[in-house]
Specification:
Chain A has helices at residues 3-6, 14-32, 39-46, 50-56, 60-74, 87-102, 105-116, 123-149, 158-173, 175-178, 186-200. Chain A is mainly alpha-helical. Chain A binds a DNA duplex (30 and 30 nucleotides) through helix 4.
Chain lengths: 218, 218
DNA sequence: CTCTAAGTACACTGCACAGTGTAGTGCAAT
DNA sequence: ATTGCACTACACTGTGCAGTGTACTTAGAG
């Protein structure tokens, strides 16, 4: 009757099976997509009976959402900016770290899922921004703001600058891969982007450049 | 028996039905995805009988490929660069044109399809680059090369510069939309990207900048 | 040993869908 | 009018899959 005798703790043993189901489902959804992944295959791959799967998750949708939620949690690998190094090195390191992060199969698969299923599961999009992109670029924006505050660089709008910088890199080195296309070597592209960024944000610019935030609407 | 009497021309009448089937299939695939679109629904929406659909296309895969091929053809709306205007204006105009092009439902839907189905249909990716992206950015690269040749701007590697420029814009204004996320207003972001680009490619740079192509592999 | 929660094996329902077969209809050209 | 073709209506097969029901087994806690 007591909590300690009847339930011990709610699912110490069941938790293991549950995890293996979620892991198998993750692999299935990431590689096959929502529609093509079958519950029978997931159960088999998890070494569980189909009934057990349905005892943990009432429906395929629920299992899918659990999978995506867990993927978002595992996404927390926000590249740090080595701010003790010179800006060129710091930016280069951050860029490479972010690329490594973005190109993990879980991330590319998740992006493909969100894009493909954003009609059936509109709520996934919102979480993607909040839990994925936001935390990933925040350190860069903070670093740029610090550079600006120290007077090392002129960065009127860190978010805009970060977006420009990362977009320039991802355009060649990340997005093509999402569509199964080949990507060029990282090094030269990143170096070029870093040079362009530093050239564009030097202090002591003569004139004709941005001196305030890039004029977002009033 | 003769070609002129027996066949008249191969399918003058049948061509109309075929087109309406392809159009209905296009709508279905773009909005539902490959797996979720049903042949029954496509036939109904095309005002055709299911048998007619299968008389024109032996399988769902074939219909899908016909749809994608036709989408690639219709993609030929490569934004021109108004090269008679000042660089700032020309780049701004091109950017807005490209964004309009990219955000058409056919394009976003096609990208989602290619990303989602690139396991089942690997061949789609190759065509996407050749028929979609290549033609779209070529005018910009040519324009940048011309600016460099005229000595108006220093653009050592037009492809790299174009990629950096467009990536910076698409990062904020295009990719989020592909995932169902809101995008900010175009104007400020584009203006900012154009300013940054011009600042980074002025002639008469002191030193420490790129003077040759950014070192793509030998 | 005994009780109970969690898991298993497996047969089964219901459905949606790709693809086929067939008998018949509308529409041109000769 | 006749011939031939594209199209239709519709029934039908086969399959794969989400989800359920049930009787049986395992494993830990007292």
């Amino acid at each position: 009757m007591s909590t300690a005798s009847g339930g011990v703790s709610p699912g110490v043993r069941g938790e293991a099976k549950r995890r293996s189901v979620v892991e198998a489902a993750t692999r299935a959804f990431l590689s096959e997509g929502y529609g093509a992944a079958s519950m029978d295959a997931i159960a088999a791959e998890a070494g569980a009976s189909k009934r057990t799967v349905y005892n943990h998750f009432p429906s395929k949708r629920d299992l899918f959402r659990a999978v995506v939620a867990r993927l978002y949690e595992g996404l927390n690998a926000p590249g740090r900016v080595p701010s003790d190094r010179a800006p060129a090195e710091a930016l280069t390191a951050f860029a490479h770290g972010l690329l490594t992060h973005l190109r993990r199969p879980e991330v590319t698969g998740l992006l493909r899922l969100v894009a493909a299923e954003h009609r059936r599961f509109p709520e996934l999009s919102q979480d993607l921004m909040r839990e994925g992109k936001g935390p990933a670029v925040a350190p860069l924006e903070a670093y740029l703001a610090a550079l600006d505050a120290r007077g090392e660089l002129r960065v009127p709008s860190p978010p805009a600058a970060a977006s420009l910088f990362l977009g320039g890199i991802k355009e060649a080195l990340f997005w093509p891969g999402l569509f199964g296309l080949p990507v060029p070597e990282d090094g030269p592209v990143v170096d070029n982007a870093v040079r362009a960024f530093l050239r564009g944000h030097r202090v002591g610019e003569p004139r004709g450049t941005v001196t305030r935030a890039p004029d977002t609407p009033s």
